[in-house]
Write a structure and sequence with these properties.
The protein has nine helices and seven strands; from the N terminus they run H-E-H-E-H-E-H-E-H-E-H-E-H-H-H-E. The protein has 277 residues and is α/β, with parallel strands linked by helices. It has one domain: NAD(P)-binding Rossmann-like Domain (Rossmann fold, 3-Layer(aba) Sandwich). The radius of gyration is 19 Å and the shape is globular.
């Protein structure tokens, strides 16, 4: 007869409820919106969290305190991801402070809406730098450590605009297409090393970034906010509703867990059927 101890029962329960216990997760752009939601989901699953992003320090400190209620270590690093050295240092600081990096979520991003011929070059450069190049620099810095550990999970928050295009978003569409290409390349290079790399491609999610985009699009097209929401943003999204942050968080947490070990190089569209058309 097999005897199962109370200790082993407790460990099995913890592994089921908190499959990321003692993992170290770095989430960029995690002071608000999708990034904050993912940080919370990973903390709930047991991971220690490194928060990165913009905001008032008192609000960031409150955010970190709320994440710590899950009993995890939570640090904040305000590295400037527009600077390649800053992006690499963010990873190195994570490893220096925690001894490892198990999960890297590249979520930070910005947007600008304008016709190509009117698109400010400095906005193009900033969008490419933050939405695409920063992910390259963080991945480049993290991979040697993940390879040495023999395990790691990289998630890139791309977009439905990494799969299709829309007018007036030349820089964002270009960056997100590039991010998906980077995802596939990293997945192929690490497929035998215990490391996974995937992209989540949301449709429109109600976040501060989309809120600002509504006003920008209204100005660019000369239409009302209501028309932007119904006739532009959700026009191609068959579900006719915004994707929720909670839906994306659940997918991210799953990709970081043991049941997703064979999922790599994929793009997971969470777009209400947009790309099914």
């Amino acid at each position: 007869m097999t005897v199962i101890s109370a200790t082993s029962d407790t460990q099995s329960l913890q592994a089921a409820v908190r499959p990321l216990t003692n993992k170290v997760a770095l989430v960029t752009g995690s002071t608000s919106g999708i990034g904050l939601g993912i940080a919370q989901a990973l903390a709930e699953a047991g991971a220690h969290i490194v928060v990165n992003g913009l905001g008032r320090m008192d609000e960031i400190e409150q955010t970190c305190a709320e994440l710590r209620r899950f009993g995890r270590e939570v640090d904040y690093d305000g590295a400037n991801l527009l600077d390649p050295a800053g992006a690499a240092a963010l990873v190195e600081n994570t490893i220096a402070n925690h001894g490892r990096i198990d999960i890297l979520v590249n979520n930070a991003g910005i947007q600008h809406v304008s016709p190509v011929e009117e698109f400010p070059p400095e906005r193009w450069d900033a969008i490419i730098a933050l939405n695409l190049s920063a992910a390259f620099h963080t991945i480049r810095a993290a991979l040697p450590h993940m390879k040495a550990q023999g395990a790691g999970c990289i998630i890139n928050l791309a977009s439905v605009h990494g799969l299709i295009a829309s007018p007036y978003k030349s820089a964002y569409v270009s960056a997100k297409h590039g991010l998906i290409g980077l995802t596939k390349t990293v997945a192929l290079e690490t497929a035998r090393l215990g490391i996974t790399c995937n992209a989540i491609c949301p449709g429109y999610v109600w976040t501060p970034l989309v809120e600002k985009q509504i006003d920008d699009t209204a100005r660019a097209r000369g239409i009302s906010r209501e028309a932007v929401i119904s006739d532009v943003l959700l026009a191609a999204q068959p579900s006719k509703r915004f994707t929720t942050v909670e839906e994306l968080c659940g997918i991210a947490a799953f990709l970081c867990g043991p049941h997703a070990a064979s999922i790599t190089g994929t793009t997971i569209a969470v777009d209400g059927g947009w790309t099914a058309q």
